[in-house]
Automatic annotation (TrEMBL):
Native source species: Flavobacterium sufflavum
Major localisation: cytoplasm
InterPro entries hit by this protein: FAD-dep_OxRdtase_2_FAD-bd, FAD/NAD-bd_sf, Fum_R/Succ_DH_flav-like_C_sf, Fum_Rdtase/Succ_DH_flav-like_C, NadB, Succ_DH/fumarate_Rdtase_cat_sf
The protein's name in its UniProt record: L-aspartate oxidase
Ranges of residues in domain FAD-dependent oxidoreductase 2 FAD-binding: 7-381
Cellular compartments annotated: Cytoplasm
Enzyme type, top EC level: oxidoreductase
Cofactor field: FAD
Function: Catalyzes the oxidation of L-aspartate to iminoaspartate.
Pathway where it operates: Cofactor biosynthesis; NAD(+) biosynthesis; iminoaspartate from L-aspartate (oxidase route): step 1/1
Residues annotated as domain Fumarate reductase/succinate dehydrogenase flavoprotein-like C-terminal: 430-505
Amino acid sequence: MTNTNYLIIGSGVAGLTFALRIAEQFPNKKVTIVTKANADESNTKYAQGGIAIVTDKNEDSYQKHIEDTLICGDGLCDEAVVKMVVTEGPKRLKELIEWGAKFDKNSDGNLNLGKEGGHSENRVVHHKDQTGHEIERAILMQVYQKENITVLDHHFATDLITAENCCLGAIVLDEKTKQISTYLSDITLLATGGIGHLYGHTTNPVIATGDGIAMAYRAHADIKEMEFIQFHPTAFYEASTGSKFLISEAVRGFGAYLRTKKGHRFMIDYDSREELASRDIVSQSIDLELKKSGDDCVYLDCTHLDLEAFKKHFPMIYNHCLKSGIDISKDWIPVVPAQHYLCGGIVVDTNGKTSVTNLFACGECTQTGLHGANRLASNSLLEALVYSSRIYEYLANPNLKIKIVKKEILESDTAKKTEIDSNYLDVLKAKLQHLMRQNAGIVRYDTDLLNAKEQLLKWKEEIEKIGNTHQISSSYYELLNMITIGTLIVSQSIERQENRGGFVKFKAPSFAKKKS
Ligand code: FAD
Ligand code: SIN
């Protein structure tokens, strides 16, 4: 059994920023980060476009960023939250720069600001097309210098420990020793990121399996707006399954056109903002075009753009295309929409508090009210930075009294049981991913959702039974968590009666569905 003051689950931008700030404030308190893969592995690491922050007060304003966010969220954002996040952005950027993160500048020394879908101005602060990698690098380096922070990589949190609606810590599986341990903490922070691998075809890395949301659900925390799955319009199309390489929206901000196979610039038919309409509209338009044509993908045309400037801003994208046989100066890039982000999640207030005492949550696993029915591009890193600091400020208040609940904790049962057949888990995961793509994709139908719910409940029962009699592994928990998240998405999609933002549901299909 391990005792710590602050237990942080996840080492993306949300978890690391909170860890760093709380450890600086309380050098005598213990901060423990558990993270299920390498310390830097996270959705954060793959962020390309950048962070949306108002820095150029001549052209831009907080009001414009607020309005863009509200329009994008299609009436479901919490306006007070939007104002708070947008106006706190510049302070968080200053801190990131102080921690050593480098952002691209123009020859005049001002920040080079990119543009993405739904933004009325250039306001996206970036480090080439590898912004997330740079942020993760800089914060992690600071974290490693703090003596009171312990980073436990390859440690998988399986469940929260609760009593009287209060969180006391978590159960953690050490992937190297296979030891299951109890971590008791005054405060627990879930910063476990997204859910991409539930869909299989996703821009997310394999860590994104919704673990934190599923743990919070089992601990009876409030979970909301799970139906708002964001599909990014432009993932590099490859016939094989699995993670998909992202072609940043900033490429369209740089002037690229979307075309059908026949060359038609179809976004002109759908929205006056054309290629820079918000993500929900572009993904839904591509989906419709593909259903009409029967083609496998649409194309991003960069052939008219300044090649040298492109290579400077997007070196990773340029090289990825080249390695895949696409010379962007001559060839169009084949693209399809892919799961990218979850707008809903664990409900938190403006201090990151969940409905369970002493349990906080931050980042992509949360529902703060910022995104509403569709997240504005590059508002996610911003949200994680703002909320991790707000949680820190709340907990740093010297007058705060932390509720202590005592409970007799029994060490987890680590007695050897039969291992679960990994082939069984792989096959069920593939079936689950296929079901989610077919029945809970960009456009959904009531009958498909009802069928999916029935299937998911059967799988949940089946896998829970197996868990009682077999040795528990992280792959087992990931699958259980993904089935739980799938059930939440499907159930909340059935409940929602009105199409908004990224959520589109009909009674029955008017076009033949494409195979996933
Ligand atoms: P993550 O960064 O995903 O971190 C989650 C952490 O939790 C990981 O360390 C993971 O290993 C750990 N974890 C998960 N489950 C467990 C468990 N059971 N036990 C222990 N540890 C666990 N947003 C923007 O604002 N701008 C962008 O330009 C942008 N580009 C993107 C590009 C790509 C390809 C992707 C995938 C996302 C992009 N996003 C972007 C979204 C953004 O990167 C994420 O939403 C954000 O980084 C999430 O941060 P986080 O800290 O909440 O979660
Ligand atoms: C991108 O670079 O297109 C991703 C930006 C985001 O998800 O906010």
